[in-house]
């Protein structure tokens, strides 16, 4: 993805593919293709929102960047170096420190047997952020204050179950701050939180990005929240980027029929889209395989033409920072 930014990208994702094995006699290769030709850059102090329905491949992108999954084809660069260079020893430790994830379930990533103090102190020690150990308590309390967990000393003494969901997500963000993360991969960070506290977490992420220059991948199925956090937006459908570019441009002038459907379904994109599916007005979400061809949205698209089912449309540049893959614009 081309982003109007002069800084060199921190992360470059180039023509990324990911296949998963499946047990099916009906499918020649026995593989499903979770990601097809994904390309984008992440820049310092800038966020890219990746939006799409469940199963569109959003989390798989984050997990590959976080080195939890191996890619099937393509390349990812971190500060100009191939991810393969960060496979062991201090290189891997440094990469894991710099590239952090924030998960959907804020409880899942906290250890119920340890205090909040432990959760913040541990990464500080592990990544040698503490020169003199007597400074450790103050460093922990400062981080807790930074993420709005006050009074810090009392919060530090608590266990994860004694905090609310929003507070637990703040602890996770404090851990990212502790290790001075350069890249944060936030996978639906607010979807398990009450609506009333979501905005606080989004604001905190915005602050990390603006004040510390963190580069962010913000994964969500809710296109409406993209503009709270992100400058750039990629709309995914069945493992493909169908439209991408500057967030406001896409939200105001959505061009791909799938993006238009997502925006029309706000405030509850998943529910409304599935209601349309159940109403039988649109085809099923396809299982994509390496043998599949055409536009993945063709079966659900009101404007589909015969060629949409035959080959994938090329990328069309609509504006400086607005791209689409759709025959309507070729
Ligand atoms: N470890 C795995 N093994 C096999 N298939 C997988 C694995 N992880 C993901 N998939 C498949 O890859 C596709 C993309 O999944 P992914 O979790 O990336 O989608 P998503 O857009 O993040 O969905 P959600 O919003 O539900 O998290 C899905 O069809 C999923 O079933």
TrEMBL record:
Keywords, ordered alphabetically: ATP-binding, Nucleotide-binding, Transport
ABC transporter domain location: 11-263
GO molecular function terms attached to this record: ATP binding
Xref: InterPro entries: AAA+_ATPase, ABC_transp_ATP-bind, ABC_transporter-like_ATP-bd, ABC_transporter-like_CS, Oligopep_ABC_C, P-loop_NTPase
Keyword Transferase: no
UniProt xrefs under NCBIfam families: oligo_HPY
Protein name as it appears in the record: ABC transporter ATP-binding protein
